[in-house]
Amino acid sequence: MSPSASNPSRPLDSLLPTETLDLTNGLSLTPQRLKLLLTVFRSDPSVKPLDEWQLKRSLLDFLHDSLSLSVPEDDLDLRRCGDLKKHKREDPVASGTLYVRDLGFLKRKRGREEDWETVWGRFKEWKVSVVDRMDGIDLNLEGLKFRLSVAAPPFDDFDAMKRSWEEFHAFSNGNRRVHNTRGGPRRPDTIVVQGVPTRWFAEPRVSSSKASLLVTHTIFSVFGNIRKLNVAADDDLGKTIEGGIVSGLQSKVWVQFEKYEDFCNALKLLCGRSMQKQGSRLKADYEVTWDKDDVFRSTQQIAPRIHVQERLGPRHEDRGQTQVEAPRVKSQITSGNNDRVGPKRWRD
Asked: Basic and acidic residues compositional bias: what residue ranges (predicted)?
């Protein structure tokens, strides 16, 4: 496994946030970028319509003049929140996202060796300062006053995610410690990646618009040995976009690793980056997190429950519902070692 095709002997955990990670199939992970969630509120009682373009230009000018950040217009997305005349005073009037991709200042100086922790620490300090300087600022657009709220998404912070799974697995069911089958404390092993273009994970030699388990397995094997894998249409993404999206354009991937160390490295390297394909200008700003639902372990418990229902008969209607739902869940979870199974992953 190598972080770069130019240095195949280099271990993954030595890759700095400022470096690109080459995957397979022409895919790569871009260097670290900053993503911020923006929310705009009214600061005056006016109900005049919001000029999105003017608001966008005002923010871009602020970033350039006050923070010395040159952000392309395509990396700032702001949209009005429905009909402003029907909004309450405390409701937001617009929301969106900001991406800052040019982080050249993080690169080490010539002749100075730095490790991941050093560069990551410098990036986190800078991110905190940017959020502090942007959050709560007042915007005056031709007499209309607005207030900006800014936050960094938690799935872009590896340290925060690590603390969350350590706390989650340290205590469960009150204060009782959770153990795995080998007797030691249970640790997570599955990552969830959503919002990646389906066509990038399709079989390149055939005309298909569906993600391939084999291609997906090859891509994520860069991070370590995989125990189980599942890929499905990312229907959740459409719920966050006004008007929805066409099912199948984006995919959601579950990857269960054999080793906890590979799980950590994969999450660390995927966190706060974007995916790009060679020859394409598109950057896939996916979301990555760890699996809190134990999706692969949960499906292993379905079969015994179905067997109990068969013995009890149809009189037990509450368990009969589980029997109906079980095949649907089971069909979505596919082992990475068995690509012949054809689970129904797409809506017609």
From this structure: 308-320
Task: Read off the pTM.
Answer: 0.76
Classified as helix, coil or strand, 77 is strand
DSSP 3-state of 210: coil
- Tens-digit pLDDT profile for the chain (348 aa)? 445 534 555 678 788 899 999 999 999 999 999 999 999 998 887 767 788 899 999 999 999 999 999 999 999 999 988 766 666 778 898 999 999 999 888 776 665 678 888 888 899 999 999 999 999 999 988 888 999 999 999 889 999 999 998 888 776 544 444 445 455 567 889 999 999 999 999 998 777 778 999 999 999 999 999 999 999 988 765 444 444 444 458 999 999 999 999 999 999 999 999 999 999 889 999 999 999 888 887 665 444 333 333 333 443 444 333 232 333 333 333 444 444 334 434 343
Rounded distance, CA 11 to CA 7, Å? 9
